[in-house]
Amino acid sequence: MGFSGPKFTRSRGQNLETRKNARLDRALCNIEWRLRFQDGGVRYLICHQSDHAPILISTTGFSSPVASKKPFEFQAAWLLHKGFEEFISRMWMASTPVNVTLKALTERLDIWNKETFGNLFRRKRNIWRRIVGIQENIAAGGPRYLLKLELKLRNRLDEVLSQIELFWYQKSRAEYIKDGDRNTCFFHLSTIIRRKINRIET
Question: CA–CA separation, 12 vs 9, rounded Å?
Fold first, then answer.
């Protein structure tokens, strides 16, 4: 089926002397599948916590989602940002009424979110692409300093993934608060499915 992303699917070794790369994994399909999913594609993801790269197969390809403007919402993921508490302390106006303060803070938070915190998923994609480029460069015999840069970017990716996890947790809880008692069986089943997906069995 071909692929996009890093050239190799397995990498081992912490330095250039011991680094070994190989393309061990491939995605195959038959004619019927290809005719049914003409836009289907394969993407090799980056090696992150394992020396093997996951393979993502999409039946609809990998086109970017259309961005849409959403109303203001407090994001729990902001709490994981190092400068968030300082920003709130600086912007909180104790001498004005609470409703005025909250309105002004909402506007400033919206700006802070765009200019400082940024879009979580865009940050993840940017870090991901940099790691892809570094791993491809290392596989081609790139300089030694790239290994340290790769480790630094992996740590930053972990931070962003933690924030994204909190984002989705907040979103799922909000949906439960809104609709929870209307269909408890649905949410119970959702919890079981989520636990199954999150469990690493092998």
Answer: 10
Domain contains 159: no
Indicate whether 85 and 109 sit together in one domain: yes
Q: Specify the number of domains making up the chain.
A: 2
- For 177-186, write each residue's pLDDT tens digit: 555 554 555 6
What is the domain extent for residue 91? 76-117
Specify if 158 maps to a domain: no
Using only the alpha carbons of the chain, give its radius of gyration: 22
Can you list the positions of beta strands (E) in the chain?
10-12, 20-22, 41-44, 55-58
pLDDT bin (cut points 50, 70, 90) of residue 202 is very low
174: tokens are: 């909000």
| 62/55 Cα distance (integer angstroms) | 13
- Residues 7-57 have pLDDT tens digits of 777 777 777 777 787 887 888 888 878 777 877 888 888 777 777 778 888
CA distance 168 to 190: 14
